[in-house]
Hints:
286 residues, mainly alpha, transport
Amino acid sequence: MEGILFALVPMVAWGSIGFVSNKIGGKPSQQTFGMTLGAVLFAIMVWIVKRPEMTSQLWIFGFLGGFLWSIGQTGQFYAMKHMGVSVANPLSSGSQLVLGSLIGVLLFGEWTQAYQYILGCCALILLIIGFYFSSKKDKDVQKAELHHYGKGFRSLTYSTIGYVSYVVLFNNIMKFDLISVLLPMAIGMVFGASLFMSFKLSFDTYVLKNSLVGIMWGIGNVFMLLAASKAGLAIAFSFSQLGAIISIIGGIIFLGEKKSKREMRWVILGIICFIAGAILLGIVKA
Length: 286
Protein backbone atom coordinates (compact mmCIF):
# COMPACT_ATOMS: atom_id res chain seq x y z
CA MET A 1 0.00 0.00 0.00
CA GLU A 2 2.85 2.37 0.85
CA GLY A 3 4.42 1.80 -2.57
CA ILE A 4 1.16 2.61 -4.34
CA LEU A 5 0.84 5.83 -2.35
CA PHE A 6 4.39 6.75 -3.35
CA ALA A 7 3.52 5.98 -6.99
CA LEU A 8 0.64 8.45 -6.87
CA VAL A 9 3.08 11.32 -6.30
CA PRO A 10 4.87 11.14 -9.69
CA MET A 11 1.52 10.53 -11.35
CA VAL A 12 0.15 13.79 -9.93
CA ALA A 13 3.41 15.75 -10.11
CA TRP A 14 4.27 14.88 -13.70
CA GLY A 15 0.67 14.92 -14.83
CA SER A 16 0.24 18.44 -13.45
CA ILE A 17 3.30 19.91 -15.16
CA GLY A 18 1.51 20.78 -18.38
CA PHE A 19 -1.48 22.63 -17.03
CA VAL A 20 0.40 24.25 -14.13
CA SER A 21 3.06 25.63 -16.47
CA ASN A 22 0.48 26.80 -18.98
CA LYS A 23 -1.51 28.41 -16.19
CA ILE A 24 1.64 30.30 -15.19
CA GLY A 25 2.14 31.31 -18.81
CA GLY A 26 5.11 32.22 -20.96
CA LYS A 27 6.52 31.01 -24.25
CA PRO A 28 7.46 27.32 -24.56
CA SER A 29 11.14 28.25 -24.39
CA GLN A 30 10.53 30.26 -21.20
CA GLN A 31 8.54 27.40 -19.71
CA THR A 32 11.31 24.89 -20.41
CA PHE A 33 14.08 27.19 -19.19
CA GLY A 34 12.22 28.00 -15.98
CA MET A 35 11.48 24.35 -15.41
CA THR A 36 15.14 23.42 -15.82
CA LEU A 37 16.21 26.08 -13.32
CA GLY A 38 13.89 24.50 -10.77
CA ALA A 39 15.28 21.08 -11.65
CA VAL A 40 18.86 22.30 -11.07
CA LEU A 41 17.90 23.79 -7.72
CA PHE A 42 16.26 20.53 -6.70
CA ALA A 43 19.23 18.49 -7.96
CA ILE A 44 21.68 20.62 -5.97
CA MET A 45 19.64 20.14 -2.81
CA VAL A 46 19.58 16.37 -3.39
CA TRP A 47 23.34 16.35 -4.01
CA ILE A 48 24.00 18.27 -0.78
CA VAL A 49 21.94 15.77 1.20
CA LYS A 50 23.07 12.52 -0.48
CA ARG A 51 26.58 13.41 -1.78
CA PRO A 52 26.59 10.62 -4.41
CA GLU A 53 29.80 9.60 -6.16
CA MET A 54 30.20 11.48 -9.45
CA THR A 55 32.27 9.90 -12.23
CA SER A 56 33.28 11.45 -15.55
CA GLN A 57 31.12 8.90 -17.38
CA LEU A 58 28.13 9.86 -15.26
CA TRP A 59 28.68 13.55 -16.02
CA ILE A 60 28.97 12.99 -19.77
CA PHE A 61 25.96 10.74 -20.19
CA GLY A 62 23.94 12.59 -17.57
CA PHE A 63 24.51 15.86 -19.42
CA LEU A 64 23.59 14.23 -22.74
CA GLY A 65 20.44 12.74 -21.23
CA GLY A 66 19.41 16.11 -19.86
CA PHE A 67 19.95 17.72 -23.25
CA LEU A 68 17.76 15.08 -24.92
CA TRP A 69 15.12 15.65 -22.24
CA SER A 70 15.10 19.39 -23.01
CA ILE A 71 14.31 18.62 -26.65
CA GLY A 72 11.42 16.45 -25.55
CA GLN A 73 10.04 18.95 -23.05
CA THR A 74 10.32 21.97 -25.35
CA GLY A 75 8.50 20.09 -28.10
CA GLN A 76 5.82 19.05 -25.64
CA PHE A 77 5.26 22.65 -24.52
CA TYR A 78 4.95 23.74 -28.16
CA ALA A 79 2.47 20.93 -28.78
CA MET A 80 0.44 22.05 -25.77
CA LYS A 81 0.41 25.57 -27.16
CA HIS A 82 -0.96 24.41 -30.50
CA MET A 83 -3.27 21.59 -29.39
CA GLY A 84 -4.09 22.26 -25.75
CA VAL A 85 -2.84 20.39 -22.69
CA SER A 86 -5.76 17.97 -22.59
CA VAL A 87 -4.90 16.73 -26.09
CA ALA A 88 -1.12 17.11 -26.36
CA ASN A 89 -0.14 15.48 -23.09
CA PRO A 90 -1.89 12.12 -23.55
CA LEU A 91 -0.69 12.02 -27.16
CA SER A 92 2.85 12.67 -25.96
CA SER A 93 2.69 10.02 -23.23
CA GLY A 94 1.10 7.48 -25.53
CA SER A 95 3.56 7.99 -28.36
CA GLN A 96 6.48 7.69 -25.93
CA LEU A 97 5.11 4.43 -24.57
CA VAL A 98 4.52 2.97 -28.03
CA LEU A 99 7.83 4.03 -29.57
CA GLY A 100 9.82 3.24 -26.44
CA SER A 101 8.28 -0.22 -26.20
CA LEU A 102 8.94 -0.97 -29.86
CA ILE A 103 12.58 0.09 -29.53
CA GLY A 104 12.93 -1.99 -26.39
CA VAL A 105 11.55 -5.06 -28.14
CA LEU A 106 13.18 -4.71 -31.56
CA LEU A 107 16.61 -3.44 -30.52
CA PHE A 108 17.10 -4.67 -26.98
CA GLY A 109 14.97 -7.83 -26.83
CA GLU A 110 13.05 -6.78 -23.73
CA TRP A 111 10.19 -9.19 -24.43
CA THR A 112 11.30 -12.81 -24.27
CA GLN A 113 8.17 -14.74 -23.26
CA ALA A 114 5.09 -15.48 -25.36
CA TYR A 115 2.77 -13.84 -22.83
CA GLN A 116 4.85 -10.65 -23.03
CA TYR A 117 4.30 -10.43 -26.77
CA ILE A 118 0.57 -11.09 -26.40
CA LEU A 119 0.02 -8.61 -23.58
CA GLY A 120 2.49 -6.13 -25.06
CA CYS A 121 0.79 -6.07 -28.45
CA CYS A 122 -2.61 -5.68 -26.78
CA ALA A 123 -1.20 -2.82 -24.72
CA LEU A 124 0.19 -1.02 -27.76
CA ILE A 125 -3.11 -1.39 -29.62
CA LEU A 126 -5.00 0.00 -26.63
CA LEU A 127 -2.59 2.93 -26.38
CA ILE A 128 -2.95 3.74 -30.07
CA ILE A 129 -6.74 3.62 -29.78
CA GLY A 130 -6.54 5.70 -26.62
CA PHE A 131 -4.56 8.56 -28.01
CA TYR A 132 -6.58 8.47 -31.25
CA PHE A 133 -9.79 9.12 -29.35
CA SER A 134 -8.19 11.57 -26.92
CA SER A 135 -7.27 13.83 -29.86
CA LYS A 136 -10.32 13.20 -32.05
CA LYS A 137 -12.24 16.34 -33.00
CA ASP A 138 -15.77 16.97 -34.20
CA LYS A 139 -16.24 17.21 -37.96
CA ASP A 140 -17.29 20.84 -37.71
CA VAL A 141 -13.96 21.88 -36.20
CA GLN A 142 -12.58 25.00 -37.80
CA LYS A 143 -9.83 24.69 -40.40
CA ALA A 144 -7.65 27.07 -38.40
CA GLU A 145 -7.76 24.69 -35.46
CA LEU A 146 -6.79 21.79 -37.71
CA HIS A 147 -3.85 23.87 -38.90
CA HIS A 148 -2.74 24.28 -35.29
CA TYR A 149 -3.07 20.52 -34.88
CA GLY A 150 -0.62 20.06 -37.74
CA LYS A 151 1.90 22.24 -35.92
CA GLY A 152 1.19 20.34 -32.73
CA PHE A 153 1.87 16.97 -34.32
CA ARG A 154 5.16 18.23 -35.75
CA SER A 155 6.16 19.42 -32.29
CA LEU A 156 5.14 16.08 -30.81
CA THR A 157 7.30 14.28 -33.34
CA TYR A 158 10.58 15.81 -32.22
CA SER A 159 9.39 15.84 -28.62
CA THR A 160 8.83 12.08 -28.72
CA ILE A 161 12.20 11.49 -30.36
CA GLY A 162 13.91 13.54 -27.64
CA TYR A 163 12.06 11.90 -24.76
CA VAL A 164 12.44 8.34 -26.04
CA SER A 165 16.14 8.87 -26.76
CA TYR A 166 16.57 10.11 -23.20
CA VAL A 167 14.73 7.08 -21.77
CA VAL A 168 16.60 4.58 -23.96
CA LEU A 169 19.93 6.17 -23.00
CA PHE A 170 19.29 5.74 -19.28
CA ASN A 171 17.32 2.48 -19.32
CA ASN A 172 18.95 0.45 -22.08
CA ILE A 173 22.38 1.86 -22.87
CA MET A 174 23.69 3.30 -19.62
CA LYS A 175 22.24 2.43 -16.23
CA PHE A 176 22.84 5.00 -13.52
CA ASP A 177 21.37 5.53 -10.09
CA LEU A 178 18.83 8.33 -10.53
CA ILE A 179 20.01 10.22 -7.46
CA SER A 180 23.59 10.20 -8.74
CA VAL A 181 22.77 11.32 -12.27
CA LEU A 182 20.23 13.97 -11.27
CA LEU A 183 22.65 16.91 -11.11
CA PRO A 184 24.51 16.25 -14.40
CA MET A 185 21.18 15.66 -16.08
CA ALA A 186 19.74 18.90 -14.71
CA ILE A 187 22.73 20.85 -16.02
CA GLY A 188 22.24 19.26 -19.45
CA MET A 189 18.59 20.26 -19.26
CA VAL A 190 19.53 23.89 -18.60
CA PHE A 191 22.00 23.85 -21.50
CA GLY A 192 19.36 22.48 -23.87
CA ALA A 193 16.75 24.97 -22.72
CA SER A 194 19.27 27.80 -23.11
CA LEU A 195 20.03 26.61 -26.63
CA PHE A 196 16.34 26.82 -27.53
CA MET A 197 16.45 30.43 -26.34
CA SER A 198 19.55 31.03 -28.50
CA PHE A 199 21.33 31.75 -25.20
CA LYS A 200 19.39 35.01 -24.91
CA LEU A 201 18.52 34.19 -21.34
CA SER A 202 15.94 36.11 -19.40
CA PHE A 203 15.02 35.61 -15.76
CA ASP A 204 11.62 37.22 -16.05
CA THR A 205 8.52 36.44 -14.02
CA TYR A 206 7.40 33.61 -16.31
CA VAL A 207 10.78 31.90 -16.09
CA LEU A 208 11.05 32.21 -12.32
CA LYS A 209 7.51 31.00 -11.69
CA ASN A 210 8.04 28.02 -13.99
CA SER A 211 10.99 26.98 -11.84
CA LEU A 212 8.37 25.66 -9.42
CA VAL A 213 7.38 23.19 -12.13
CA GLY A 214 10.97 21.95 -12.22
CA ILE A 215 10.81 21.25 -8.50
CA MET A 216 7.60 19.29 -9.11
CA TRP A 217 9.48 17.26 -11.71
CA GLY A 218 12.27 16.53 -9.23
CA ILE A 219 9.87 15.47 -6.49
CA GLY A 220 8.19 13.12 -8.97
CA ASN A 221 11.54 11.51 -9.74
CA VAL A 222 12.38 10.88 -6.09
CA PHE A 223 8.99 9.35 -5.34
CA MET A 224 9.25 7.24 -8.49
CA LEU A 225 12.36 5.68 -6.96
CA LEU A 226 10.60 5.15 -3.62
CA ALA A 227 7.60 3.59 -5.35
CA ALA A 228 9.80 1.24 -7.35
CA SER A 229 11.62 0.12 -4.20
CA LYS A 230 8.40 -0.50 -2.27
CA ALA A 231 5.96 -1.77 -4.90
CA GLY A 232 8.19 -2.78 -7.79
CA LEU A 233 8.99 -1.06 -11.06
CA ALA A 234 5.87 -2.39 -12.80
CA ILE A 235 3.50 -0.64 -10.39
CA ALA A 236 5.58 2.54 -10.32
CA PHE A 237 5.81 2.63 -14.11
CA SER A 238 2.09 2.03 -14.66
CA PHE A 239 0.98 4.67 -12.19
CA SER A 240 3.45 7.28 -13.45
CA GLN A 241 2.09 6.96 -16.99
CA LEU A 242 -1.43 7.62 -15.77
CA GLY A 243 -0.42 11.24 -15.19
CA ALA A 244 -1.84 11.90 -18.65
CA ILE A 245 -5.28 11.63 -17.06
CA ILE A 246 -4.38 14.45 -14.68
CA SER A 247 -3.34 16.53 -17.69
CA ILE A 248 -6.62 15.94 -19.50
CA ILE A 249 -8.72 16.85 -16.47
CA GLY A 250 -6.49 19.80 -15.55
CA GLY A 251 -6.54 21.20 -19.08
CA ILE A 252 -10.32 21.11 -19.20
CA ILE A 253 -11.01 22.36 -15.66
CA PHE A 254 -8.17 24.80 -14.96
CA LEU A 255 -7.33 26.04 -18.46
CA GLY A 256 -10.89 26.07 -19.78
CA GLU A 257 -10.15 23.95 -22.84
CA LYS A 258 -13.44 23.40 -24.63
CA LYS A 259 -14.83 19.98 -25.45
CA SER A 260 -18.14 19.16 -27.09
CA LYS A 261 -20.28 16.41 -25.59
CA ARG A 262 -19.16 14.05 -28.32
CA GLU A 263 -15.51 14.95 -27.75
CA MET A 264 -15.92 14.35 -24.02
CA ARG A 265 -17.21 10.85 -24.74
CA TRP A 266 -14.20 10.24 -26.97
CA VAL A 267 -11.87 11.57 -24.27
CA ILE A 268 -13.36 9.24 -21.67
CA LEU A 269 -13.00 6.29 -24.04
CA GLY A 270 -9.42 7.35 -24.74
CA ILE A 271 -8.65 7.54 -21.02
CA ILE A 272 -10.04 4.04 -20.42
CA CYS A 273 -7.94 2.61 -23.25
CA PHE A 274 -4.88 4.51 -22.06
CA ILE A 275 -5.22 3.21 -18.49
CA ALA A 276 -5.66 -0.36 -19.69
CA GLY A 277 -2.68 -0.10 -22.05
CA ALA A 278 -0.39 1.41 -19.41
CA ILE A 279 -1.32 -1.26 -16.86
CA LEU A 280 -0.71 -4.04 -19.38
CA LEU A 281 2.70 -2.58 -20.21
CA GLY A 282 3.47 -2.49 -16.51
CA ILE A 283 2.64 -6.21 -16.27
CA VAL A 284 4.84 -6.93 -19.28
CA LYS A 285 7.75 -5.08 -17.67
CA ALA A 286 7.31 -6.91 -14.36
